[in-house]
Amino acid sequence: MDGFDYRNGQLWCESAPAEKLAEHFGTPLYVYSQHTFQEHYQTLRAAFADLDPLICFSVKSCQNIHILNLLRELGSGFDVVSGGEVFRALHAGADPQKIVYAGVGKTDREVHEALTANIGLFNVESESECAQLDRLAQERGTVINAALRINPNVDPKTHKYTATGRRGTKFGVDLPDVPGVLRRWGGGTGLRIRGLHLHLGSPVHELAAYATGIERTLELIDAAKREGIELDTLDIGGGYGAHYQGSEAPAPQAYADVIVPLLHNRGLRVILEPGRAIAANAGVLLTRVLHLKQSGGRTFVIVDASMNELLRPALYGAYHCVWPVQAGRHVPVGRGPEQPYDDLVVCDVVGPVCESSDFLARDRQLPPVQRGDLLAVFTSGAYGIVMASQYNSRPRSAELLVNAAEPRLIRRRETYADLIRYEEETGNGMG
Ligand code: LLP
Fold first, then answer.
1. Mutate which of 58, 78, 311 to test ligand 1's pocket (most atoms within 8 Å of Cβ)?
2. How much distance in Å is there from the Cα of 378 to the middle of ligand 1?
3. How far apart are CA 115 and CA 364, in angstroms?
């Protein structure tokens, strides 16, 4: 369920025709549906209502301050992973107490900034980081409340680049080491670990992985209690899926059905860090066809978006539905690769960047398209523009937030001047 659908053969975002948006704002263009962000947030909140959790939207998935502001208005907090993301969240008006800060490597400067902002929770990922936070807190005469990120050694059955909860990744503290770390830092002078954090990977469709990960965490909390260490916070991370093809991801309610009974009546403050489940299907990337080309027996549809705008296909081999905005009689049936038309053409949809990995779709059946046609790349709201680069000196795209029929420019298109801005502010020597 999202704000993008075909009516009379053409794609709309809420009550705005996608073709008109692209004509006015140019391409490549990220277009978001405001209503979809709101609905996805509310659905997740309703599913987990029994736990009354703090929902901390994962800023890394979709970081535009206007979108963060929209979610903040609904009560969302924020999961951040850098000083820059703390800055963004605060800029969007976040309640600092609703900011949780993860990441395996925080610099002293970043920790100081977060302390000055008075954020709610640090998620610490190693004993070395415990010592760092303890030292910095003591220097400032303050106490840091933290949760220890554990590595639950669960196979989340997701892409190896986005699997984090398995032993041998850089994330969290290995299970056997957790009791010792809690003993040493459960009641430190500067650092006080008062909870546990886990994040299995992204996306995780395997509900059993959540059950196992959370059960292992609860065992650690119970063991700590027997030793007199009270842990009152459990941050269960993100990883809730989104439909890229059809209905492959479990619904928020399905995650809740597994997770809520485990945590019900435990008296813990529960935190969730969803990103993709809220943002992915709230955005599409619009791109124009520049050329068609046959080469080596393949048909290439060359478009003006590239791996710079959407890295996921190149980096993870990720599937995104690509389809003409003016579909005519070829209205797609769902967003999967199989579509019920007999005149489709197998193509590679590729960008202008000088890399063979620069593709948005491979071996994909598409209706016949022509130069100038507009294509939509669906499910691009999460890990889309946030992973964009200027490779090949290509200015980054604009972003639009659509509310009903009203588009709002929430990030202007970069200019050539933007490309060289930082190279002009230079100097010699160390003075
Ligand atoms: N919490 C932590 C600690 C995380 O590391 C992440 C994502 C999340 C929450 C949010 O996960 P989500 O609910 O969005 O699945 N670039 C990859 C995804 C990397 C995810 C990194 N961490 C992609 O495009 O699929």
1. 58
2. 18
3. 49
- Distance from residue 92's CA to the centre of ligand 1 (Å): 20
For tokens 């970081």, name the residue. Answer: 63
- What are the distances in angstroms from CA 412 to CA 26, 312, 363, 404, 409? 11, 23, 33, 20, 7
Span from the CA of 61 to the centroid of ligand 1 (angstroms): 7
| Span 341-364, average pLDDT | 97
Contact status, residue 44 vs residue 55, Cβ threshold 8 Å: yes
pLDDT tens for 119-163 read 999 999 999 999 999 999 999 999 999 999 999 999 888 888 887
Residue nearest to atom 7 of ligand 1 (CA): 202
The residue type found at 29 is L
203 lines ligand 1 (CB under 6 A): yes
Q: What is the pTM of this model?
A: 0.97
Q: How confident is the model at residue 234 (pLDDT cuts 50, 70, 90)?
A: very high
Is 188 near ligand 1, meaning CB less than 6 Å away? no
Average pLDDT, the chain: 96
**Averaged pLDDT, 411-422:** 97
Per-residue 3-state assignment (H helix, E strand, C coil) for the chain: CCCEEEECCEEEECCEEHHHHHHHHCCCEEEEEHHHHHHHHHHHHHHCHHHCCEEEEEHHHCCCHHHHHHHHHCCCEEEECCHHHHHHHHHCCCCHHHEEECCCCCCHHHHHHHHHHCCCEEEECCHHHHHHHHHHHHHHCCCEEEEEEEECCCCCCCCHHHECCCCCCCCCEEHHHHHHHHHHHCCCCCEEEEEEECCCECCCCCHHHHHHHHHHHHHHHHHHHHCCCCCCEEECCCCCCCCCCCCCCCCHHHHHHHHHHHHCCCCCEEEECCCHHHHHHHEEEEEEEEEEEEECCEEEEEECCCCCCCCHHHHHCCCCCEEECECCCCCCCCCCCCCCCCCCEEEEEECCCCCCCCEEEEEEEECCCCCCCEEEECCCCCCCHHHCCCCCCCCCCEEEEEECCEEEEEECCCCHHHHHHHHHCCCCCCC
Give the pLDDT of residue 160. 82
Pocket test for ligand 1, best of 37, 61, 164 (most atoms within 8 A of CB): 61
pLDDT at position 167, please?
Answer: 86
Give me the mean pLDDT over the 8-29 stretch.
98
